[in-house]
Amino acid sequence: MADTRYVRAINKALSDAMAADPSVILLGEDIADAGGSFKATRGLLDQFGPQRVRDTPISESTIVGAAVGAALSGLKPVVEIMFMDFVTLAMDALVNQAAKSRFMFGGQSSVPMVVRLPHGGGVNAGPQHSQCLEAWFAHVPGLKVVCPATVEDAYSLLRAAIEDPDPVIFVENKALYAMAGDLPDAPGKGVIGKARIARAGSDVTLVTYGATLFNCLKAADRLAGRDIFAEVIDLRSLQPWDKETVLASVARTHRAVVAHEAVRSFGAGAEIAAIIGEEGFDDLDAPVGRVGAPFMPVPFARSLESRYIPDADAIEAAVKVCLA
Amino acid sequence: MADTRYVRAINKALSDAMAADPSVILLGEDIADAGGSFKATRGLLDQFGPQRVRDTPISESTIVGAAVGAALSGLKPVVEIMFMDFVTLAMDALVNQAAKSRFMFGGQSSVPMVVRLPHGGGVNAGPQHSQCLEAWFAHVPGLKVVCPATVEDAYSLLRAAIEDPDPVIFVENKALYAMAGDLPDAPGKGVIGKARIARAGSDVTLVTYGATLFNCLKAADRLAGRDIFAEVIDLRSLQPWDKETVLASVARTHRAVVAHEAVRSFGAGAEIAAIIGEEGFDDLDAPVGRVGAPFMPVPFARSLESRYIPDADAIEAAVKVCLA
Amino acid sequence: MTRPAPAHGIAGNSRLLDLHRTMLLIRATETTLSKLFADSEIPGFIHLSLGQEAVAAGVCCALGSADTLATTHRGHGHVIARGIDLDGFFKELMGREGGLCKGRSGSMHVADMSLGILGANGIVGASVPLALGSALSHQTLKTGGIAVAFFGDGAMAEGALHEALNMAALWSLPMVFACENNGWSEFSPTSRQFKGKLSTLAGAFGIRHILVDGNDPEAIASAALEAADHARTAGPAVLECMTTRFRGHYEGDPQKYRDAGEMSAMTEGDPILRGRARLAELGVEAAELDAMAAQAEALVAAAVEVARADPLPDFDATLADVYTPLEAR
Amino acid sequence: MTRPAPAHGIAGNSRLLDLHRTMLLIRATETTLSKLFADSEIPGFIHLSLGQEAVAAGVCCALGSADTLATTHRGHGHVIARGIDLDGFFKELMGREGGLCKGRSGSMHVADMSLGILGANGIVGASVPLALGSALSHQTLKTGGIAVAFFGDGAMAEGALHEALNMAALWSLPMVFACENNGWSEFSPTSRQFKGKLSTLAGAFGIRHILVDGNDPEAIASAALEAADHARTAGPAVLECMTTRFRGHYEGDPQKYRDAGEMSAMTEGDPILRGRARLAELGVEAAELDAMAAQAEALVAAAVEVARADPLPDFDATLADVYTPLEAR
Ligand SMILES: Cc1ncc(C[n+]2csc(CCOP(=O)(O)OP(=O)(O)O)c2C)c(N)n1
Ligand SMILES: Cc1ncc(C[n+]2csc(CCOP(=O)(O)OP(=O)(O)O)c2C)c(N)n1
Ligand SMILES: [Mg+2]
Ligand SMILES: [Mg+2]
Questions:
Q1: In whole angstroms, what is the distance from residue D51 CA to residue D37 CA?
Q2: CA nearest neighbour of D174 among D224, D222, D230, D119
């Protein structure tokens, strides 16, 4: 299916996973009748019925807490939290329960659940509907964090996340939902933890994930115009993340820039940059650059948000500094 | 007052701040009659009465949410969350309300509040009573994050935090409460964002905060025995953090190791290491080392937790790698 | 527009006129917002309270200058009834430098500290603990004020309500829990999400519950005065206002989930038509009411023009609002 | 110790003996834990349920093998009544490799999935949503089982209770909310923290509420059977057990906040003495009961010896429990 939208790939992954495994259920606000605020669950109520596609009350903390209890009791819940900003209401369930249950119980049980979190700005949704908080979850042992950028990954990694025995934070960038791309007729299941070289290059390694991938590719295009060949790595997941692929690339390019939409300071890029700096020290000919949002909440006005989100210009500028 | 305990310094800071400013109030579970689980508020009920020292129900999210509303309405609330692990229940109030209100309202109002969060292990309290989650808050624009290690800083930085017009996350390591140290008879108020060189040295810079400072000093002692002189920097705060002092030290030592008790992966140390690697690139003669807890929940058994918490040996080992 | 004086002791007739004026201003504002949004002059998304004007007008007319309020994503009516500057309001929603919040946050976060408005909120249920804390300040600092939390019926499912009812009762705080019960939680009837009865819940904590027809301005105004007086003198009160959401959850919502019958029936209970009829009964001239409506339209039209002319916010200045600048301390 | 058969249809007399045996085992276990803790043979902190044995015995005797439960920081009695392996239990609390959770987590997290025990919990209120989710599994997978959430009176202040009552009612889940009301929340009387009435709260969601004397094993057993049957056939039920905490909040708590009067009075209601008296009435020989007590002591003493001999957990193996190893999938 060429020209499949990202949100449709999510929808198909949910549908295929539910068809393949009767223990998969969906929980979320307005996901059944309404098909979800972003229509990711459209049609699934009719397909699988109200027992498996449940509209919940506006009770994020108990929705996720219940998902943990359900996952410990034979179901594989997939929860939609409407905006990642609202997961702040469910942190105990995710961090103290989901992430730790397997460990706390000495490995007696896994916690097979997925929490889908739409993050990111670009739609003038304002400070409480635009945040990128994935770095928090990457810091929590027991959780996996997946951030698909492409339509195919949206499908294949969601299938992988649902099949994964451990709790997975599945981050979808709102700005990507409407993006169209190729989805094979029989798409496969991805592997969590394997990065993808989205574009090969020899002069600098751009490490990124999520929607920022496309700004990196745009920057790489422009740089190629001036004979600077950037290798673009789409991490696809932050926990675990594919250190080997990144370090191997840096060993070839000797330069690296890490870019994401999240606030730069104490963001996920810090860990990537620190590891490159530590384990790739001898390969580096220049400091590892980092591109991320400035240290402020996501502003609302068009004139502000457009300046806030790291774009291709910002990435290009960082590459130039890195090559200077 | 020589030999003042850390918890007593906290207690005195609260008492002095309340005496100096009638708008300072305390909120928390069992902080009034019982004086708090760690006795940080002992005696304050008698001193200031039940209106200003309030025992709350077990309702973390509303305690912190109410603190925001109170801070927007003329009070300066100081909240005690019994264990940092429980702040997972109050993340919306901290991240979506406290941190963003000033920004969202276009600077109309500040949000003068402090949330005290006892973190850290060492008392076999297990996976849900031992976490170090400060990296989360350092990633949130609008919050300040303070982590005092010494008795004097516990006092002076808590005074500074309470006077600060913006919301401050005040992190106290449980293992330090019983530690005794010097507190001047008329202790001053600290400055948030200024690091302290706890020990001068020329061969390597150890950057740390909180209880890990003492493991760094211990390691530095041992290293000195073998003519390796480590400079130990106590950051005191993570947001903002004192980049200048750290970079200036690295410019002298050309080597750095960042150490904290929190999980190493995606921890606060990643940002510090990334900045040293980026802005101190030309000064570095070796990769920046990082010491932190392994990627697992804090285990309970003595034989496990003792191995889990980064100790002087781990720091010493990292320094050796850095000097190799 | 200037801020309405607290309605205490104002004779019913003139109070009704005040209420009507306020409702007309909200109606004119949101009707205009709907157009501006359709023309994409307003970024992001907006939630209109058309049909719910009586709640905003009635509750806010019971408030005095010391009082505070925290509201929701559907808070335009509340802040207008509280007397917010219309120019600054439109500038904010249109993302301009002169906005009440300098265009930082838009419709879901409109605030005016000088009017005791602790902000609209993008987090369902968040207004409740914020108002609780404000009530704690009123009590501790003896301001004589009360705090009002506006929240929707869907928000009743959040644990925040339970925790706040308990703390308000425990500390006997000067607070009004104002539930705007429009029967909808986004695209679902709240009856399919929430099984609790607010009256019983309030009762479980010993809190006074007042139920009122949320489309009858007069009824709300007196119920609100009763609730506010109770809060000032005896502790927390819950005011549940049964009302009607004329528009979709947000502008642009096709509302497939609502049948034509409901859509047409609801307008019959239009609080503005009811207010107008009542005033006619009381002998107010139709001409006077038409003039009032025209004046509201004019105020709004003027504000929109002012807002359009306002510059866009400058990015670099924005950073200064994250933390309190030293000089501002 | 083997797991008690579900008490359905067992004649009262022998059921009472089962209950008594269970209470004695809990009593012996926790009395011993108190000593072990004093001798620092147990790391961290522990919360004992001495005085509350009847709740654990009574509620768990109503459960069948398909049923699940989630409990609290004060959960020793519940897991013992559910039939947990005593050796593994002591090993866990003493931080040994052979512990039920391999010494990873101790007293506050004891779990045994094979018995449907989803763990004790260090987070007040967390047992409630966990059990709710487990009930959702029972309903969706048609296991015929029910889920029980044990929680304390202090936990009622957490929003989790409100959210879970609503969802359980909304979906008519096979769940029992078992409130262990011992009047204390740490060092404070819960009456100084929580103003709500559980019966009314349950009623607000249309949920059946059953109040029972939590120190009368017989009364709890039948109330629990009633609640469990209701959950199996008609949806959620709340079981509120009024009981008594003999010890401090945690071992080592000096309890300055409790007066001598209360301390001495409370032992009079001792559920074990009451059970013993009742059994005597029914003609059970004192000798038999003494033998039963001795047997419990012996079981515990043996388990402690086994635990002491058990090796300490190996750190490197611990990492393997963070994520599910590939081979385990
Ligand atoms: C914590 C949180 N969860 C979900 C949402 C998404 N959301 C916005 S409005 C709304 C429905 C609220 O219904 P109600 O409280 O009745 O207010 P109304 O829209 O009817 O005025 C939801 C679910 C949100 N903004 N915040
Ligand atoms: C979320 C959370 N807040 C606070 C605590 C600290 N704490 C542990 S037990 C307890 C009191 C609980 O009282 P109750 O629910 O009545 O249980 P009981 O101890 O009486 O069995 C508190 C406040 C905690 N563990 N978790
Ligand atoms: Mg509604
Ligand atoms: Mg209790």
A1: 18
A2: D230
Chain A residue with minimum CA distance to B104: A127
Q: How far apart are CA A16 and CA A113, in angstroms?
A: 16
Contacting residues of C for B97, CB less than 8 Å apart:
121, 123, 126, 130
pLDDT in tens, D121-163: 999 999 999 999 999 999 999 999 999 999 999 999 999 999 9
In the predicted model, is pLDDT for residue D40 greater than 60?
Answer: yes
- A177 Cβ below 6 A of ligand 1: no
Distance D243 CA to ligand 4 centre (A): 9
Listed residue (D66, C112, B239, C71) closest to A267, CA to CA: B239
**Average pLDDT value over all residues in chain B:** 98
- Ligand 1 pocket, C77 CB below 6 A? no
Q: What was the pLDDT predicted at D6?
A: 41
Q: Which residues of D touch A105 (CB under 8 A)?
A: 101, 104-105, 109, 111, 113, 119
CA–CA distance, D43 with D198 (Å, rounded to integer): 35
Q: Is A181 helix (H, G, I), strand (E, B) or coil?
A: strand
Kindly report the nearest CA distance between residue B54 and chain C, in angstroms: 10
* Contacting residues of D for B127, CB less than 8 Å apart: 104-105, 109, 122
Q: Which residues of D131-155 are buried (b: 16+ CB within 10 A; e: fewer)?
A: bbbbbbbbbbbebebbbbbbbbbbb
d(CA A75, CA A79): 12
DSSP assignment, residue B129?
S
D: neighbours with 3+ CB pairs under 8 Å?
A, B, C
D193 with B56: Cβ contact below 8 A? yes
* ipTM of the shown complex: 0.97
CA distance D23 to D117: 18
Q: What six digits make up the tokens of A210? A: 């999520």
Residue in the block written with tokens 């801020």: C3
Q: What is the model's pLDDT at position C12? A: 55
Query: Residue D155 Cα, ligand 4 centroid: separation in angstroms?
Result: 8
Of C112, C167, C329, the CB nearest to B62: C167
Site of tokens 């600098």: A204
Tell me if B105 sits within 8 A of B141, measured CB to CB.
no
What is each CA distance from D47 to B124, D106, D109, in whole angstroms?
14, 11, 12
Residue C7: pLDDT above 70?
no
To test ligand 1's pocket by mutation, which of A31, A38, A58, A83 has the most ligand atoms within 8 angstroms of CB?
A: A58
Q: Is B254 a catalytic residue?
A: no
Closest CA to D120 of D98, D105, D135: D105
Is the pLDDT at D13 greater than 90? The verdict is no
Q: Are C306 and C90 spatial neighbours (Cβ–Cβ below 8 Å)?
A: yes
**Which secondary-structure segment (H or E) carries C252?**
none
Residue (of C12, C105, C23) closest to C56 by Cα position: C23
DSSP A34: S
| pLDDT above 50 for B137 | yes
Mutate to test the pocket of ligand 1, among A27, A82, A129 (most ligand atoms within 8 A of CB): A82
Tens digit of each residue's pLDDT (9 = 90 or more) over B23-68: 999 999 999 999 999 999 999 999 999 999 999 999 999 999 999 9
